[in-house]
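Complex 254.
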Amino acid sequence: MRGTLIICPDAESVSREAAQRVVSAVAEKLADPRATFSVALAGGSTPRRLYELLAGSPYRSKIPWARVHFFWGDERLVPYDHAESNFRLAHEALLSHVPLQRENIHPISTQIPADQAAQAYEQVLRAHFGRWGTPRFDLVLLGVGADGHTASLFPGSAALAEKERWVMPHSLGVNQPARVTLTLPIINNARRVHFLVTGKPKASALRAALESGPLPVQRVQPKKGELLFLVDAAATGKLEGIRIEVPVASEAQT
Ligand code: 6PG
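Predicted structure with 6-phosphogluconic acid bound:
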């Protein structure tokens, strides 16, 4: 099995486990007084509860927000107040509730064509992480789709083969908003990649995610970083035959 699997009883405890791990990762990095913490947020519906938890007690007071920088793993090119905007999700559930400077929030531009938006976001990353060398996020949060996509890296997408560019556009067809996504070289250079996977409909995708293969989710393999799957019991429905290593009992519960 790839990475570490943490099985929680339900979606709420997945979110709490994830919140605790965000707090620990931030504390570990920011023990160095000169350091900042960079996180790439996931979209979709699963992380909403995590974001809400981080915005409230007891997590909110444990994070030195001024030293945390927020990025997005992917975005739909819709206005920031659109129901499908990943910026909106994060803003509503988290960013508008914590003491953050505008300089700490690094959204993907959504009012320009996708290729330009991808190039512009690469410049945003260069401005923060430096012009040379691959950015190293402290944490990349991801979800997984039933087809094995993650961020906006879809099966068969040209972005999967990308080795140079840090950000790529993706089109899902005429009736869908264009998307922009981080590429695998960036995701796989992160210190931590945490997947949040909940619910029975995700069982097949989770099974695939835990094994090696060509699907986008299977290609996420941090080179020198932690790969963690925080999942609920419902999502583990199809794991027969996979040797599950739950690290310690206390890690599976909160
Ligand atoms: C998005 C994400 C996408 C998401 C998965 C899971 O913005 O939709 O990029 O990769 O994480 O599709 O989505 P759910 O959490 O809604 O199941």
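Residues 167 and 182 are 4 Å apart (CA to CA).
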